[in-house]
Amino acid sequence: MREKFVNHGTFVIEKSYPASREQVYEAMADAEAKARWFTKPEVFEFRVGGREFSSGEAPDGGLFTFDATYQEIVPLERIVYTYVMDFNGVRFSVSITTIELADADGGTKLTFTEQGTFFDGLDAVENREHGSRELLELLGNSLAQSGESVVAEDDADLAPGELEFFHTRLYDSPREEVYRAWAEPELLAQWWGPNGFTSTFREFDFRVGGFWRFTFHGPDGKDYPNENKFIEIESEKRIVLEHQGAPEFRLTVIFTDNAGRTRVVFRQQFKDEQIFEQVKSYCPDSNEQNLDRLQAVLDGQRV
């Protein structure tokens, strides 16, 4: 019988990339981008509580599996996840990983910290650190090969602020199509709102100074009237609106072309700290669900 024992280890890797934080973050937050340098995920749910799962064959046979759960996500700043590694169904490690991003010398500094528990001599912290360094080299190669490793011109649009929920998505659709899904009420009504909600638009005057009035119909059977005022509209580039009434906030949506795909930055900004704290328990998840529903509509699905 194999001896049962456990070892613990921690390592830290620091890397610098000639790419913006937004680009490095995207390489970890988007399934297709991540598959260019990491094992292609079979499950990829990039949200707090979401799962990432991948598997691969060992060179001499057998099946490795990687099963992670995202514990904390601070867009463009920090990703924390826990994960287990199995080989042919036998667990050989449990780890917690923290990835931190910071601006540095015209690019991005990435700090990768892993704390691992390794079972029965099946793996060791030295091996894990070596493998992690190789993966981060592949990440750098992927960023370079994309031809997009330049610092964004307007970092103010890409830096999360205080009292704000910040989200970013990369859609496999051209910018005009993604923008149209926001600008045309027939499309917007199909996806606007979190899971389980539908909406009835009463007014949609898509111009600066115009109003967007609608009612959410919740899964609990209740109706929730909403009113927004459009503050800024720049066709296919930016939409800014202010939510009238409680909770008051400003929503800024930024559309950028990314080699035929579209990057959407979604910024929900509050003035009142007390209100921000009150909605923090549900707003971020609701926003992520909203952006998921937009993806479904772009894919031609009904939501």
TrEMBL record:
CDD domains: SRPBCC_CalC_Aha1-like_1, SRPBCC_CalC_Aha1-like_7. Pfam families: AHSA1. Residues 19-138, 173-298 form the Activator of Hsp90 ATPase homologue 1/2-like C-terminal domain. It comes from the Bacteria. Belongs to the AHA1 family. This is ATPase.
